[in-house]
Structures are given as structure tokens and as C-alpha cells.
Amino acid sequence: MTELQKRHSECTEECHSHEPMTHDDVKDYYGKRVKKTSDLKTNACIAPAKPIPAFIRNALAEVHPEVTSRYYGCGLVAPECLEGCRLLDLGCGSGRDCYMLSRLVGEKGHITGIDMTEEQLEVARKHIDYHTQKFGFSKPNVEFVQGYIEALTEAGLEANSYDVIISNCVVNLSPDKTSVLREAFRVLKDGGELYFSDVYSSSRLPEEIRSHKVLWGECFGGALWWEDLMRLAEEVGFSTPRLVTANTITVGNKELESLLSGYKFVSATYRLFKIPKNPEKKDCLVIYNGNITGFEKSLEFDCHYTFKEKEVVKVDGEVASILKNSRFEEEFTFQPDVETPLPGSCCVSPKVVLVNPFELAEKFESANVSPATGGCCGTQASCCK
């Protein structure tokens, strides 16, 4: 029996439920029905691999095999400049990303993973000592908390306490995405960042898809229309989402494909910043200093801006505000006079802003290139205070 036939047969008895989705449904799906990556019935959480910087690849290789075997993400969530930072992983699952990032933030950094599924957390907690010893730390720099990503307050997570929040293919599983963003905004420090990969739909999904238990569990039914992310981010107080990368998702299951006919899906990574509400937003010239380990020659900030070492780049007012008010401040030299670049250097102008992940995915596919991936600081510099 082929993998596709196996998925079709396993899905047949489950693919006809249209009751409202609850947290218990998701807990059951990822706690009892899905025990390893191969148990998934679609391709949503096993998107094609992207090129990964060597130091991140090495960190991933050090994660315990049992943890990796229960990985259900849809992208790489490793933003740059993380050494010494406090990170929160929303929907950490078995802890693969937490452990990879615990290696990258270093012993002075800290990772908190939160998940509502006890079976997943049991796997994550079991390997804390293993990774502490593997990374050569004198004490653990990671902890796991059981709770809901819509209710971080109830889970005991304090306001203004994290430099960076990540999430990997989990926000789509929440029935209240506004609360997820609002709670993330609350616990982030000023200048903090929400950097997350998720599944997005080409338009708003009808009730029969959103209430389908298998489609929801497989990350399709709860997929947010990408334009609604723009609206929700503004409503909560975040900066305009910066699109980093996007991949087209294929379903890989004939029965579920028929239910999703007419809708398209992508895995996309966005970065949202908690910057001052009314900052001065003026175009300016910036120069990347080249001090972020792993990205000494160039830093791909998003799909619009790639900063090369010592090159003068003209950025729009919002990007200037993000860089000046975040952990990236010390990584750049700012030149307010946009008309007069430094002697001997050329000025690269900003590109047309692209926020539609489907257009970006098509652009990558037509050019036959892989999307850019994020990274983070190594152990040479402290990017967070």
C-alpha cells in the first residue's frame, strides 16, 4: 500500500465530523492519534526542506532523536541575533525548536516552551538533562510549561519578560488567534519580536472546513487568511508583519484535497515587532556592521531587505524604527541624511514591499530557488540585554 493510499484509508472514518473544534480535540489529535511525523495524513507539516545555515543545522543534529521524531512544524523558526536572549516557544510540542534554540541562545539565555498536550511535554521534559550535558551547560536553560497559548497569563508568564517569541505551525490550531497575538504582545519586552511560521489560506475558509476535525488537526482547517494576519497585527499593536519566506503546501491526500477544492495554502514565516506606538518613521540610511555570528557577510532580514556588510541601504521608516528599537540596534550604523551616503559607498534603495505569501511562493518557484531562512547569533556576541 502506498503512503497516499494509507493516508486515504486511515482518514475515511474520521473525515466527516463537523462539530466545533475545541482544545480537547487538538490535544487528542497530537497526544493520542499522532505519535510521530509519519502519522500525519497530509503534507502540511512536512513541507520541503529549505537550505539551513551550517551552525543551525549542527544544533538541530544535536537534538535527541525521540524529540525530533515528534516534530510537526512547517518552517524554520530561528531568527537572527539570539545570544543571551529570553525566548518563548508557543506550542512547543516535544521541544525540538526549544532545544535547537537553547543551544543557540547559549548558557546565559533562556527558553520557555508552552504546550497544552501533556504527552508532548512528557517527551520534552524527559530530555532536559540530556541536552544540558550535550551542550556543555552547567545548568539547564530550558523549561516547559503546560498551558494554552491564548492564556499566557494563566500559565504564569509575566508581562514584558521575553525578547523573542517563536511558534512553528501552531497558531493555526488555536480557535482564538486574536488572543494568541494579544497575549504574545503582552509578554514581549518593548522592542521584542514575534517570529513565527504557520499555514495560511488564499481566502477565508467556510465553516464546513473550519469545523472539520481532521482538516483542523492537519493544520488546514484553522489556517488564517493571510490578509487577516495584517488586520489582527495592527489591531493588537504590532508593527506591520514582515514576510520572511513562503512555500506552497500540497495536501497529498485525495479525500482531503476534494474537501479543500478551490483553496490554496502556503507555509509562511512572518516577523512582527513590538515597537513604540507613535515612533518617528522616516526613511534613513543604515549600514550593517557584520557582527552577527553566522551572518557576517550578509543578513537577510525579510524578503525585501538583505543587508550586506558595510553596504549603505535606504530603508523605509517602519524598518528604520524596528531596527532602532529592537535587539538589532547595535548591529547597525544609522545615517539620518538619506540624500548623502557615506563617502566611497553606494546606496541600495528599498524594494517594493511584498506581503502576499502566495506571490512570494510563486516567485521562488518560478525562479527555481529556495526561500531564505533565518538564523541567529552564535556565542561571540550578546544580542539581548
UniProtKB/TrEMBL annotation:
Protein name per the record: Arsenite methyltransferase
GO molecular function list: arsenite methyltransferase activity
Sequence ranges assigned to domain Methyltransferase in this UniProt record: 83-237
GO biological process: arsonoacetate metabolic process; toxin metabolic process
EC number per UniProt: 2.1.1.137
Organism annotation: Megalops atlanticus
Enzyme kind, highest EC tier: transferase
Family: Belongs to the methyltransferase superfamily. Arsenite methyltransferase family.
Pfam families in the cross-refs: Methyltransf_31
Any one annotated GO CC term: cytosol
Catalytic activity: arsenic triglutathione + [thioredoxin]-dithiol + S-adenosyl-L-methionine + 2 H2O = methylarsonous acid + [thioredoxin]-disulfide + 3 glutathione + S-adenosyl-L-homocysteine + H(+); arsenic triglutathione + 2 [thioredoxin]-dithiol + 2 S-adenosyl-L-methionine + H2O = dimethylarsinous acid + 2 [thioredoxin]-disulfide + 3 glutathione + 2 S-adenosyl-L-homocysteine + 2 H(+); arsenic triglutathione + 3 [thioredoxin]-dithiol + 3 S-adenosyl-L-methionine = trimethylarsine + 3 [thioredoxin]-disulfide + 3 glutathione + 3 S-adenosyl-L-homocysteine + 3 H(+)
